[in-house]
Amino acid sequence: MLVVSFIYSFLFLVTVITVQANDRCVVGLLVSRPGDVRILEQAKLNAWRGLVPLRSTRDDVERVLGAPKSSSQPDYVYDTKNEKIIVRYSTDTCSSQSSSSEWNVPVNTVLTITVSPKADILIRELHLDLQSYGRSEIPHPRGLVRYLSLEDGVAIESKLQDGCEVVMSVTYQPRTKDKGMRCRDAKAEKKI
């Protein structure tokens, strides 16, 4: 058993040395914490830690993350060891007379979840199906790139750094198939 463990450790070290010699971008990945990558791999599912836009509530979020560190309504900031999270909640309903709500959901329903990792994670480590994501470079500030899948309800912002794309944030938002949950006025505004 000890021999197997030693061989595994040796092979890992050889891999790191090879990767460092041949591909500088992957080195940042190897030193990033596995928990960060696991969290962001869920980008394909339009859910983060079981929290889903238009379906989860503020109570659900606080069961997972605890109380927010700060807020500027409708956005609440949560902080964990590996990431900073900003959750936007609904503040009004469609039926309210002064409604500015875009979604037909109860007050305190999650609208978006933006997760910003504290460690560097490369965009390619997310294993995105790039055919389902539109990619656009943001002209100002220079070096920012956005990936967007309306169908999946995921937007990813990254920055170009030393020839690599490093993830800045992943935003989970309503998907294309959620359009039936829009307020009637919001539907009319979107067509214009």
Give a topology summary:
Blueprint: H1 2-22, H2 24-31, H3 34-41, H4 58-65, E1 70-72, E2 75-79, E3 83-89, E4 110-117, E5 134-138, E6 144-149, E7 154-161, E8 164-172, H5 184-191
Antiparallel strand pairs: 1-2, 2-3, 3-4, 4-8, 5-6, 6-7, 7-8
Structure description:
It is a single chain. By secondary structure, this protein is α+β, with helices and mostly antiparallel strands. It has two domains: 1-31; 33-191, no CATH class. The chain is 28% helix and 27% strand. It contains five helices and eight strands; from the N terminus they run ααααββββββββα. The chain has helices at 2-22, 24-31, 34-41, 58-65, 184-191, and strands at 70-72, 75-79, 83-89, 110-117, 134-138, 144-149, 154-161, 164-172. It has an eight-stranded antiparallel β-sheet with strand order 1-2-3-4-8-7-6-5, covered by helices on one side. Strand 6 (144-149) and strand 7 (154-161) form a beta hairpin. Helix 1 (2-22) crosses helix 2 (24-31). The protein is globular.
What keyword list fits this structure?
5 helices; about 190 residues; 8 strands; about 25% strand; 2 domains; globular; disordered N terminus; alpha+beta; eight-stranded antiparallel β-sheet
